[in-house]
Amino acid sequence: MEENKDFFAETENTQTSAETNNDAAETSANAQGNVTVYADEDGPTAVFTEDTTPTKKKSIQTPIIIAAAIVVAFIAAFFVFTAFFNSSIVGTWVLVEDSNGATHDEAGDGVTYYTLDKDGTITVSVGTITQKSTYTVTDKNGTKYVNSSNVFSGSYKISGNVFTGRTFELTVEGVEKPYIFKSATVKKPVLKVPDTFKKNDKLTGKWNIPSYDITYEFSADGTFLADMYGTITYEGVYTYDNEKITVTYYADSETTIDIPYAFDGNNTLVMNGMGYYKMNSDGSLVATPDQA
User: Scanning 41, 102, 224, 277, which has the fewest C-beta atoms within 10 Å of its C-beta?
Assistant: First the structure.
């Protein structure tokens, strides 16, 4: 009987060890870790140690970094091209040397600026006066030409960079030496509104003379804008009394002009004997000339 007891005890221990091993195997199938088997007087024992190291998740950082690097490289290439290899005539230029070799001051308030935009518009600015026109650029056998009937025409070359300054060299047919322009930024003279200025509600607003396409705008803050034909503008400040409007603008120097005025009803302003008609905010006339 004692032998049977030993046999059953050994069998029970073997079954327990097998169950333990099965549990360890099942655990290891569901979790990551290590199984260690220990041998002692009661039989083998399996111990499962779970790996607590966080599982690495798939990362999307690598594609993002690559895309960012491509964008940065593109921006850098564009900057280098713009800074060192830009041969476009687009920009603002100031004349520094004419065809006679005479130099011109590129500073000061009476400088003439030439601004060529991408849309083919060229704006000539002197003081607070601007005139808009158009231009075209052509390429004939590797030689570039700029043409603006109201400003200048000829072949041209662009050199330099944004750090040392760009140079625009214009050669006009029949003229021995080229005109030399340097890149610049338009600087408008500042004209101060007198401290004693008080707005006139009747005068404040836009006034237009349709037959000549001329518009004067007298603002409540003492500034004015004159637009002539949609191409020439004068900006400045103004004052008034009962008989005249005094406008001040800047050409090559500060210029002041007195304009005699009177009202003919509420919607007509007579300046220098010519009738200007009040305008709505949308640009239409408050009253047509035959209604004013």
Answer: 41
